[in-house]
Specification:
Number of strands of chain B: 7
Distance between the termini of chain B: 63 Å
Radius of gyration of chain B: 25 Å
Oligomer: heterodimer
Distance between the termini of chain A: 55 Å
CATH class of the largest domain in chain B: Mainly Alpha
Number of helices of chain B: 12
Helix content of chain A: 25-40%
CATH topology of the largest domain in chain B: Fumarate Reductase Iron-sulfur Protein, Chain B, domain 2
Largest sheet of chain A: 5 strands, parallel
CATH architecture of the largest domain in chain B: Orthogonal Bundle
Largest sheet of chain B: 5 strands, mixed
Order of helices and strands of chain B: EEHEEHEEEHHHHHHHHHH
Mean pLDDT of chain B: 92
Mean pLDDT of chain A: 97
Largest interface: A-B, 76 and 72 residues
Chain lengths: 557, 331
């Protein structure tokens, strides 16, 4: 068994940011990640990270934009922290070595983003996530942080209501390892793989959320799934909102900039939920182009495209066979981000003492019912940093606790049992069935009967999952068994999303019910909290939304 | 249309030696090699092992040899490969030990990244203050000024910060083939990236000193493979050449490689000719000369003996002029 003061699970931006904070103070924190840190999906973020720098901008305006963007479901005390700490966090990153493009005055260059009333997205061409991830990773190396990579965490271990460590599967040699700690931070990212046509990495299977709910920690607002308006038609690969920030048009089959109908003021730069719905409506009403919408950047000119959107240009050429300098890019909405997640406060604390979460896996909630573009990278560094600081404080008084090694044995046996199974079902195919069902019936537009159909499918898949066969019986780098476990995780998360979406009988932000098309503040201005009862059934509770400054208003753009 | 994937297979628990296994897959327009591998794994053979994550050429997980060339599987289309080779041959990256199938042990690669100290050393004075605080109502933050030109070598599309550490360059690197301890192109490109950073404050040039040690920047054999095979269009070898220049300019000339370059420049500057014996002596000292003796004898037997005394060439004035232009005189 290994023993450290802090275990950080996940090595994307939130995990690395917390690690830097802890290691700076010389705290014995270890990073555990199922991939090498630089493979984390934070690196795929493209367009920008928001902070008010300009003299004509203000953090208060960023604050309001974020509250309005969240459709008033975001907790305003947390959003105030997010936006008022944003500029200092960006400068901190810059000091750590992250490079941002510059404006003519020698400051950080900023571009417009959806739902923001001022151009306040800081960027590094269209690869800011990559830049931040590698910059923070370099700092993690600077502070000589121990990293266990290619370790898959299977359980959270507690002792008398306090966290005491995690159980991890060493993918390289097939051994289970207990890692005892006084504090555990899950920065495990989202669950995009619940849906077909998503922008996410294949590793984004909601593992941290699944482990949490099984450990008794509530998942909050899981019915709110962001569909990104611009993902490549064939592959779902992300095309940054920065393209529209730079001035790109969205066109239907008639060549019309249809956003004038849905968001006459903000047009293409309306928030993502609004644009994704507008696109899907155009497609559904027969004004799509082969089931897609066109994203046109041609009028920006070759030079600007090459300078500001080089990755987008290359991705369109490599993955869609379209050169955006000469042709519009076929795009459609795709599952992108999880507004919901492990319920935390604004210091990353969860329901279990010593157990923290930050980044996409957490739900503070600063994104409420809909996240604004450029706020997720911000979320990772603001709350990753805060969690690191709070953990350091917590350790000063945290007492010793027992690590129950029987949990290691339990997980090992579950793996062995699954590995021996020679059932007929293939998890790869079950996953495709689940993803397709979720896209079709728990997607951009939702309706009770369709969602009930999805739930039936999920229950059927849970049954069939008992019959999964594993081809690979070996201990060395057995990705077959890891993928089977990941499938079980997304299956559980899909059920939480679907049940939450059926429960919430209103339309708010990204959750749009055709049978309840209005927002209902009286009944539904509240967070949903999902937990498991003793028999693995999902049950729901509610909690209040923190409203400090801005009373809910109708949300138009 | 159906096509065949021929995959390198090796599981140390079962196999005495590696072998190849063929799978037949149905093609579709736009299918990538990664799509094909995932199809094989989920539908035919779950034991086929490979790394993958983002599927959009930004995470660097799925680098492998595809028909002999190190590439990202997610970015490589099946169609053109089949057209050219008739088959998709997949093998693990070279220059690293194989763990299993297409998965290599990357530890040595990442150890070398750590070795070059990939972070800012020190801080520019006006940016060093720790001024972290949440803004109060109505408060604005002031930011340190850095002009565009200061970052001009770090913000271009093909500049080194765009490196995704996929190891394609490392797998193709001729220098690593010859010397497995050689830092390799990705680590050196990263070293250059931090040297080039206007915020860096490495006053005594410790980074360059470090990079000049044996197995460092002077072990590059200039084969250009890193540039040729980089899936992100970056040229590590150009970074390495710039590191050489910086090192000489900062008079960090303790390494054999730097001495070699200085001696060649000096020899040509003085006589217009390459005094090979002197260059060998300057670079390696007496022991270097002794080490070179067998080669010298071999060359002698073939009639290739360098002249012991060099005569000035006719156009010496032109060379002096060129040196002056290049600002090489005092170096």
């Amino acid at each position: 068994m290994l023993k450290h003061d802090v275990v950080i699970v996940g090595a994307g931006l939130a995990g690395l940011r917390a690690a830097v904070e802890l290691r700076k103070q010389g705290i014995d924190a270890i990073i555990v990640s199922k991939v090498y840190p630089t493979r984390s999906h934070s690196g795929a973020a493209q367009g920008g990270v928001n902070a008010a720098f300009d003299e004509n901008d203000s953090w208060e305006s960023h604050f309001f934009d974020t509250v309005k963007g969240s459709d008033y479901l975001g907790d305003q005390d947390a959003i105030e922290i997010l936006t008022s700490e944003a500029p200092a966090n960006i400068l901190d990153l810059q000091k750590m070595g992250v490079v941002f493009n510059r404006n003519d005055k020698g400051g950080i260059a900023q571009r417009p983003f959806g739902g923001q009333s001022f151009p306040r997205s800081c960027y590094y061409a269209d690869a800011v996530g990559h830049m931040m991830l590698h910059g923070l990773f370099d700092n993690v190396l600077k502070y000589k942080t121990k990293i266990l990579y290619e370790y898959f965490v299977t359980s959270l271990v507690t002792d008398n209501g306090k966290v005491s460590g995690v159980v991890a599967y060493d993918i390289k040699n097939g051994k289970f390892e207990g890692i005892a700690a006084k504090a555990v931070l899950f920065a495990t990212g989202g669950y995009g793989q619940v849906y077909s046509s998503n922008t996410n990495a294949l590793i984004n299977t909601g593992d941290g959320m699944a482990v949490s709910i099984k450990a008794g920690v509530p998942l909050m607002d899981m019915e709110f799934v962001q569909f990104h308006p611009t993902t490549l038609k064939s592959t779902g690969i992300l095309v940054t909102e920065g393209a529209r920030g730079e001035g790109a048009y969205l066109l239907n089959s008639l060549g019309v900039r249809f956003m004038s109908k849905y968001a006459p003021k903000a047009m293409e730069l309306a928030p993502r939920d609004v644009v994704a719905r507008a696109e899907q409506t155009e497609i559904n009403e027969g004004r799509g182009v082969d089931g897609a919408i066109l994203l046109d950047v041609r009028h920006l000119g070759k030079e600007r495209i090459m300078e500001r959107l080089p990755q987008i240009m290359q991705l369109s050429i490599d993955f869609e066979g379209v050169n955006p300098i000469y042709e519009p890019i076929p795009i459609r909405p795709g599952a992108h981000y999880s507004m919901g997640g492990i319920k935390t406060d604004y210091n990353g604390r969860t329901a279990i003492e010593g157990y923290y979460s930050a980044g996409e896996s957490a739900c503070v909630s600063v994104h409420g019912a809909n996240r604004l573009g450029g706020n997720s990278l911000l979320d990772t560094v603001v709350f990753g940093r805060r969690a690191g600081i709070d953990i350091a404080e917590y350790l000063k008084t945290a007492d010793e606790r027992k690590f129950d090694e029987s949990i290691v044995k339990r997980d090992e046996e579950a793996f062995e049992k699954l590995k021996k199974s020679s059932g007929k079902e293939r998890h790869g195919l079950l996953k495709s069935e689940l993803q397709e069902e979720m896209r079709a019936d728990v997607g951009v537009f939702r309706e009770e009967n369709a969602m009930k159909k999805a739930l039936e499918k999920i229950i059927e898949l849970k049954e069939r999952a008992k019959n999964i066969g594993i081809d690979d019986k070996s201990k060395t780098f057995n990705t077959d068994i890891v993928e089977a476990f990941e499938f079980n995780n997304i299956l559980l998360i899909a059920e939480v999303i679907t049940r939450g979406a059926i429960l919430r009988k209103e339309s708010r932000g990204a959750h749009y019910r055709t049978d309840f098309p209005e927002r209902d503040d009286e009944k539904w201005l509240k967070h949903t909290l999902a937990t498991l009862d003793g028999k693995e059934n999902i049950k729901f509770d509610f909690s209040e939304v923190a409203i400090t400054k801005f009373k809910p208003q109708p949300r138009t753009y | 249309m159906e096509f065949k994937i021929r995959a390198y297979r090796f599981n140390p628990e079962i196999d005495e030696k590696p072998y190849y296994k063929e799978y037949t897959v149905e093609d579709y327009p736009g299918m990538t090699v990664l799509n094909a591998l995932i199809k094989v794994k989920s539908e035919i053979d779950g034991t086929l092992s490979f790394r993958r994550s983002c599927r959009s050429a930004i995470c660097g997980s799925c680098a492998m040899k595809i028909n002999g060339i190190s590439k990202l599987a997610c970015k490589t289309q099946v169609g053109p490969e089949i057209e050219k080779f008739g088959i998709i041959n997949v093998e693990p990256l070279a220059n690293m030990p194989v763990i299993r199938d297409l998965i290599v042990d990357q530890e040595s690669f990442f150890d070398k990244i750590k070795e070059i100290k990939p972070y800012l050393l020190g801080q520019r004075e006006d940016d060093a203050r720790d001024n972290f605080h949440a803004l109060k109502e109505g408060e604005k933050i002031s930011q340190p000024v850095y002009y565009k030109y200061e970052f001009q070598n770090l913000t271009g599309n093909n500049d080194t910060p765009n490196c995704i550490l996929c190891e394609c360059c490392y797998s193709e690197c001729g220098g690593v083939v010859g010397n497995p301890k050689y830092l390799g192109p990705a680590a050196l490109a990263k070293l250059y990236r931090y040297c080039e950073d206007p915020r860096d404050n490495d006053k005594n040039g410790s980074r360059l000193v470090n990079g000049s040690k044996p197995d460092g920047m002077w072990d590059c054999v200039h084969c250009q493979s890193c540039e040729e095979f980089c899936p992100k269009g970056i040229s590590p070898v150009k970074s390495i050449v710039k590191l050489h220049e910086r090192t000489i300019k900062n008079s960090i000339t303790f390494s054999a490689g730097a001495k070699h370059v200085v001696s060649i420049a000096k020899s040509i500057g003085e006589t217009g000719r390459l005094d090979e014996i002197k260059v060998a002596f300057d670079s390696g000292g007496i022991s270097g000369l002794i080490n070179d003796l067998p080669m010298a004898f071999g060359a002698g037997l073939k009639g290739k003996i360098p002249p012991l005394r060099l005569k000035l060439i006719k156009d010496m004035d032109d060379i002096r002029l060129a040196y002056k232009e290049l600002d090489l005189e005092e170096k």
